[in-house]
Every structure is written in C-alpha cells, then in structure tokens.
Design a protein that fits this description.
alpha+beta; 9 strands; elongated; Pnp Oxidase, Chain A
C-alpha cells in the first residue's frame, strides 16, 4: 500500500503539537544511537536543532565518541519519547556532516559561553579535575578576547537522512497502541509498510 503522505509531514505535525501542548516533553530531545567503535551500540540524548525535508540536524564535537562512531559506521537510529503526549517516534537513517558554512552559520548564533565551551571541551576524554576544564576555558577567553570567536574545526553539524519511520500513539484508557510505519523506496517514494493496532501488554 503506497501513500502520498510524507512521514516528515507526519513528524512536523506531531512535533509542533507536542511542543505547544506538552512542553514538559522537551520535543527536541532525542535519543541518538550509534554503533560504537568497539562494536557495541551506544545511546545518548542530543538536541534536535532543525529538521527539513532532507532530515534531522544536530551539532556536536566531531572528536566525541558519537562522532568517531559515525565516521566508522554512519547508520544510526534516533528516538523521540514524548511521554506526556503518549507518543513515540522511532527513526533509522544515515548520518553525514553538513556543509561547513552551515555549521559556521549556526555557531555564530550561539551565546559566547557556548562558543568558548566548544573550544575548551574535549568531549569523551577523561580530565584529571574540574580545574583543568576551568583553565582551558580561561585560556580561550583570553585568546578570543574582544574578537569574533571562530568555529573550531572539530565542531559542527550532522544531518540524519531517514529511511525508516515508526510513529506510535498510545491509547492508555482503551488499552492499545496505534503504529504507523514508513519505509523509503529505491525511487525515493515513501511506502506505508504497516498501519496496525497493537494490544498493550
């Protein structure tokens, strides 16, 4: 069964609904799962900064554990758990770096403290003490005093280009969940692969 309904439209409708009516769900918080360099899956919360017809964009340190994992295997999964709204969205896709100028544009919009932290923080590496981090921050405060803070080469954005979606709506009182699944086809049309009602356990 094919459908003209694009899952990005479906996501957009749910996202804005949750953001407006259930702010406690933090609509842009998403669980990013990668295959770690050790071969085991790793998951962590990141913030969705933007979504387009092409995919989902977030920013991070390229030298972080997730950055290294994506460099080795760019197949990822993201999940949105909107508990108050009783909705979940599960997405699979492939991650790739966005264009440098797009990362620079977003970096320029960040507060000064966040820019300095991007320079001072060596993500996923153990530091001996908090003092070390404070000293690194002071170093970059001095270095960039009274001047524009440039984007570090090791920091930027990724776009996750989806190929599978699953939308889950929980009907607690009625005792079931409603699932809608989409899969991207070779011709780049979306196929509605399942639209089912599941009894809750």
């Amino acid at each position: 069964m094919t459908t003209n309904h694009n899952p990005i439209q479906h996501f957009q409708q749910w996202f804005y609904e949750v953001d407006k009516t259930h702010p406690q769900d933090e609509a842009n918080a998403m669980l990013l799962s990668t295959i770690g360099v050790d071969g085991f899956p790793k998951s962590r919360i990141v913030l969705l900064k933007r979504f387009t017809w092409e995919g989902f964009i977030f920013f991070t340190n390229y030298n972080s554990e997730k950055g290294k994992a994506i460099a080795q295997n760019n197949k990822v999964a993201i999940a949105f758990n909107w508990a108050a709204a009783k909705k979940n969205v599960l997405i699979e896709g492939e991650a790739e770096k966005i264009a440098k100028n797009l990362s620079e544009g977003y970096f320029e919009s960040r507060p000064e403290g966040s820019k300095l932290s991007a320079w001072a923080s060596d993500q996923s590496k153990v530091v001996s003490s908090r003092k070390v981090l404070e000293n690194q921050l002071k170093h970059y405060e001095t270095k960039f005093k009274n001047q524009m803070i440039p984007k570090p080469e090791h920091w930027g954005g990724y776009i996750i280009r989806p190929n599978k979606f699953e939308f889950i709506e929980h009907h607690v009182k009625e005792g079931f969940s409603h699932n809608t699944k989409y899969k991207l086809q070779p011709d780049y049309n979306w196929f509605l692969s399942a639209k089912i009602t599941l009894a809750q356990l």
